[in-house]
Amino acid sequence: MVIAFDPEDCPPNCSRPCEKVCPANAILLEELSTGDQSPCNSNASSKLQGGVVTERCYGCGRCFPVCPYDKIRAKAYIRDSISTCELLKRNDVDAIEIHTTGRRIDLFEELWHSLGNSINYVKLVAVSLPDMGNLTFSTMNTVYSIMKSRLGYNLWQLDGRPMSGDIGRGATREAISFAVRLGGMKERPHGFYQLAGGTNSHTVDGLKKLGLFQVMVFSVIYFDSSSSLSHLILNLLVDSSLSSGISVKL
Ligand code: SF4
Ligand code: SF4
């Protein structure tokens, strides 16, 4: 899913919260003056131009609730494996995120094999999957076994509430309960872990209440420009024994 709207349909004086909230800079707007702009013309007007950069939108849903005029719509966007391979081989993508429900491993395997050697061009593969209860770790192990022969770094993005837009206190409860269960498990599949869907500004307070929040200070984080992972984002530490690290967005 990606989002779409017609910028010319937006009020030109909108404060553009959609643009500000997007973590992927996928909404780019500018105000364009139209008509006679001379000071004596009281009919000077403007309109918005630009819109959604579909290639960057990853359907997180954050922009939906912030639009005061209900202009934003979701639309299906299917990028086939051939065009995905071509995109990866351009060698300007650091990381790829694969969403799976975990219920159709055969489809995951099909997708993975269809990506072929193009996967070697990315530094990190993130797999996003929901809380599957007792099946979560066995599913992750199966997914990892499919990927491991052609894998650099891998990240598990574990969604307490998938595609929640991460807004609101309610969305974080499921993320935290997922974190509590993860923290209690001993044999965890290989990779970095990130609590994803449902994490927001309420999550830290919730984790603190349960004694699950801790801060790790990285004394030096340095990547040179030729080899860097281009964007670093916060990784929540769930408990002292849980793997931690950095995660990457496109
Ligand atoms: S759905 Fe998420 S990534 Fe896409 S434009 Fe909206 S905020 Fe940005
Ligand atoms: S917030 Fe809504 S109305 Fe305002 S620019 Fe974004 S899509 Fe248009």
Automatic annotation (TrEMBL):
Keyword Transport: no
SUPFAM superfamilies: 4Fe-4S ferredoxins
Tree of life domain: Eukaryota
The entry's keywords: 4Fe-4S, Iron, Iron-sulfur, Metal-binding
Molecular function terms, GO-annotated: 4 iron, 4 sulfur cluster binding; metal ion binding
Stretches assigned to the 4Fe-4S ferredoxin-type domain: 1-32, 48-77
Protein name per Swiss-Prot or TrEMBL: 4Fe-4S ferredoxin-type domain-containing protein
